[in-house]
Design a protein that fits this description.
2 copies of one chain form a homodimer.
Chain A: E1 8-12, E2 15-21, E3 29-34, E4 37-42, E5 44-45, E6 50-56, E7 60-65, E8 68-70, E9 86-87, E10 110-113, H1 115-118, H2 124-128, H3 131-137, E11 141-144, E12 148-150, E13 160-166, H4 172-185, E14 189-194, H5 206-209, H6 232-248, E15 254-257, H7 271-286, E16 291-294, E17 316-318, H8 320-331, H9 344-353, E18 360-362, E19 367-369, E20 381-383, H10 388-392, H11 406-418, E21 422-426, H12 446-460, H13 470-475, H14 484-499, E22 507-511, E23 514-519, E24 522-527, E25 531-544, E26 551-558, E27 561-567
Parallel strand pairs in A: 10-11, 10-21, 11-14, 14-15, 15-16, 16-17, 17-20, 20-21
Antiparallel strand pairs in A: 1-2, 2-6, 3-4, 3-7, 5-6, 7-8, 7-9, 12-13, 18-19, 22-23, 23-24, 24-27, 25-26, 25-27
Helix pairs in contact in A: 6-7, 8-9, 8-11, 11-14
Site (Transition state stabilizer) (chains A, B): 389
Protein name (chains A, B): Malto-oligosyltrehalose trehalohydrolase
Pathway (chains A, B): Glycan biosynthesis; trehalose biosynthesis
Chain lengths: 569, 569
């Protein structure tokens, strides 16, 4: 394997090689824990703020900064959590996926899951136990919410502080590798959610070592990585190597880049472009497809456009507009960002043009937002009717099935699966889970906890619950009470989805209270109310959410529900 | 004229139409000063935070905010300064430049000047009086340091707070129009330095009216305009209209955009791209060339690349690397950013490739900096051996002639004029001015003054002088003690420059202690010490800074100095 990590603790035969970037200091000592022995050793200084050392038989280590033992920013494992020692990992994992070729972008059907709440046991083994179920459902890749070490045992993952360390409470590095290995053996891909904009509030020791964070850009939820100021070469290295690390060392099939709209970089080459360049090289070296997916709130096609069209060349991005259009129309909600949505015409635009705000004034944002996607293919966009944010960021944390009835829910499911885009299910959605997905944390810093509680009390008002409590976490776990009508519908529509391409050459129209989508010799009818529709061709039913005639042609009255027909001429 | 300003006070026949963007308020009152009469009138509310009103016979006005009279953010004139009332201007200026076609980018030879210190009287009239001198010198365009109203009577101009108001102490709007009109009559262009990144510290009332400033980006020298957050459409409008205003209402031949590296914008269309689009439209409407020039510290060719190459399509940009390479080599200075410069090879690179830091690690910046300019033409870059920053930001404020001797000074002059780029002279340079250009202010806010003085005491140490004192200002004024040897040399080299194109197809080599540049059938010899050079062709002298042989060929010994030869074969 040509790529090797040059940060953290790396084993080479009988040696362990340590390397850290710590430009704030002229000298640096490492604390080495060997069997029943603790040694403090001065590191060798290299150029540009790096220090390195080789030693033997080290089990744990930390760095001595201002007389405190601080874990390694590139620690591979923090068995005792964010404040504990870093562990040296030398065991080789016995990969069994030599033949694995990855998941082609056109075949992606994504299943987003949160390791802690997906199963009762809340760890990687809990996911492994469900791989057969997921394979049987028909999805082709799971997308893990972030697993980089965060403070405490419970967290969505976006408060991670050790980019390279796999969350101890999920089972750590070995268990994550086992999950990927088992998934690959079953033909399932694994995409990892990684956070390259900010780091979390507890256990963030990065700033002790060097200028990891920007001095000129700020976010409300934590410091932002420094991608364009002094020392940014090394910060960029820390981040781009992390992306490669998950691909090479963990055999990930893709990365979901969190909130790229909060990554600021005025360098000639944007960090996203640099990440995508490096991933493309890895892809060709490894001869397997790596899917690079951005969460972007910008509605800017630059993120996913090829280089020759001035883009960052990311493979695909989430499209919140699609979600919001469906959600606002079906629920009638108009608060917060749903203010900008609600008409059936917007669903048509979402199906046809992806972005609804593509250079259009947004009342919610109080500005003109976005730009048209042009001729970018349907496979460049990930769509969903639920995800961790769209459920979890609601005051009530409610899933869609608690807001609309099953019939409307299935109409929305039909629409997003039958869109030209890549569908993403949020765990439990496929069988009608009704448990909420709440915001939960497990911090230990009292000041931080108090600030968090006060902030959320203000924000949530009567909906307030304690983010720190076990109860909040447990309530968010999947119940696995399966509604087989929904589950079977999902299995069937996934089968149909797999037959389709991602051509955006589709015909969408509104007739009476229905949306009609014609594509790939299929007709999709989504009737939000009883409707009368008119058809020029004859169509044969292949799937429906309610009673629908087996053949339709000419003027037809239909009841509420969605159906997929095949050309019967 | 198709373009009309829709902000501020605009006269239409006998009416004055007022329009202001003030989204912080649901209602807004204007204070109207008519002859011996003061009226307070409620404005009419429009969409998106705008208010408007029509009235008659108004001489001055202000807006009532929290019971205080605040001047108009789009005021055309602040006769009493930044804290005073805004003036309604209804007089038509009698333009005499109907036939004026602007200055083609290829013909630009720029003369940067500061209105306050250029002449003893320190106003626009003082510049008008020197137009014949400037024409006779041979430059084709003057570039005025910013004239937007700043606090007090003395300022470099970068503390401007009313983008549309012409500095009262310089003579105000009428006098600026007169200067442009007179310049055009003599065939000289006028470029205006405009500041679209930040506003100054005194008299900045913009934030009282609306979110003019970014909540997420910061600079050390003032708030940054909000180009991409809520309400940014209107801030962008305020700024882009300002650019057009100088072109349409003041007949400017170009704009120099201050510090574009401090303009942050993650919108799909960058504000610089929007400005350049709008200026191109103005250019074709007005049928005269408008030169859009950026001051950029980014060494990023994106700024000046055409759209099809993913650029912002700005016409040209300053190149500090060129300056630093020459300055550091000639002076031997290595402090601050000169740390990155000093070798003769860097001068060669500057002549050949423009940017020295074009993807190369900078020790001073502690990061890899810049990107190569590729095949962008020489006319995309402005070069200089002095400018207001490179003199004024020195602790000693010293001009180059106080740092090196006349011979070395003229060698540098030769190099920058004979480069493929557009030359820019800083006022006085052409006749050997030795007065410093110091940093001076005339604020009235005591806290601000104290902070400024303390800050500069710390920064300057033994070099400290009081930025607020009249003396500092007067010391910075041009003495007009003309060294005719230098002046004549400048006149002659400008004549030669005018014969050349901006092709970057030049040959540069180092021989002994000399730089040899072959271009356009000319040979430029710049000998920093006695040198022996070898020539394959025969050359005839056309201009030199010292005694040089009239013909040279084969092996030749030359003394220190620079000379320009023409092919004599």
């Amino acid at each position: 394997m040509p790529w090797k990590l040059d940060l953290g603790a790396n084993c080479e035969k009988s040696n362990v090689s340590f390397r850290i970037w710590s430009p704030y200091y002229d000298s640096l000592s490492i604390v080495l824990y060997k069997q029943n022995k603790k040694e403090i050793v001065e590191m060798n200084k290299e150029d540009k703020g790096y220090f390195s050392l080789k030693d033997k038989d080290v089990e744990y280590y930390s760095y001595l900064i201002e007389n405190m033992e601080i874990p390694d920013p590139a620690s591979r494992y923090q068995p005792e959590g964010v404040h504990g020692k870093s562990k040296v990992l030398c065991e080789n994992f016995n990969w069994e996926d030599k033949e694995w070729e990855g998941i082609d972008q056109n075949n992606l059907i994504i299943y987003e899951l949160h390791v802690g709440t997906f199963s009762e046991r809340g760890d990687f083994q809990g996911v492994i136990e469900k791989l057969d179920y997921l394979k049987n459902l028909g999805i082709t890749a799971i997308e893990l919410m972030p697993v980089s070490q965060f403070g405490g045992k419970r967290n969505w993952g976006y408060d991670g502080v050790f980019l390279y360390a796999v969350q101890n409470s999920y089972g750590g590095p070995y268990e994550l590798k086992r999950l990927v290995n088992e998934a690959h053996k079953k033909g399932l891909g694994v995409i990892l959610d990684v956070v390259y904009n900010h780091v979390g509030p507890e256990g963030n020791y990065l700033g002790k070592f060097g200028p990891y964070f920007s001095s000129r850009y700020t976010t409300p939820w934590g410091p932002i990585f420094n991608y364009d100021e002094a020392w940014s070469d090394e910060v960029r290295h820390y981040v781009t190597q992390n992306a490669l690390y998950w691909i090479y060392e963990y055999h990930m099939d893709g990365l979901r880049l969190d909130a790229v709209h909060s990554i600021y970089d005025i360098s000639p080459k944007h960090i996203l472009s640099e990440i995508s360049d490096k991933i493309k090289i890895a892809e060709s070296e490894l001869k397997r497809k790596i899917n690079l997916i951005a969460e972007s709130d910008l509605n800017d096609p630059k993120i996913i456009s090829p280089k020759e069209k001035c883009g960052y060349n990311i493979d695909a991005q989430w499209s919140d507009d699609f979600h919001h259009a469906l959600h606002a129309y079906a629920t009638g909600e108009r608060d917060s960002y749903y203010e900008d949505f609600g008409s059936i015409e917007q669903i048509v635009k979402a199906l046809e043009k992806v972005f609804i705000y593509d250079g259009v004034y947004s009342n919610f944002r109080k500005k003109t937002h976005g730009a048209p996607v042009g001729d970018l293919g349907g496979n460049k966009f990930i769509v969903y009717i639920q995800n961790h944010d769209q459920i979890g960021n609601r005051k009530d944390g409610k899933r869609l099935l608690n807001l609309i009835d099953k019939q409307n829910f299935l109409i929305l499911s039909t629409l997003y699966f039958m869109s030209p885009y890549i569908p993403m299910i949020f765990m439990g959605e496929e069988y009608g889970e009704k448990n909420p997905f709440l915001f939960f944390t497990d911090f230990s810093d009292v000041q931080l906890i108090n600030a968090l509680r006060e902030g959320r009390k203000k924000e949530l008002g009567e909906y307030y619950y304690d983010p720190q409590s076990d109860d909040t976490y447990n309530k968010s776990k999947l119940s696995w009470k399966i509604d087989y009508e929904i589950l079977n519908f999902y299995k069937n529509i996934i089968k149909i989805k797999k037959e389709l391409d991602h051509s955006r050459n589709i015909l969408v129209k509104i007739e009476d209270n229905s949306l009609l989508i014609e594509r790939d010799k299929l007709l999709v009818v989504a009737a939000f109310k009883d409707s009368t529709i008119h058809l020029k061709k004859k169509w044969k039913l292949i799937l429906s959410t309610a009673e629908f005639p087996e053949y339709i042609e000419g003027e037809i009255k239909i009841g509420r529900g969605a159906a997929i027909y095949r050309n019967a001429n």
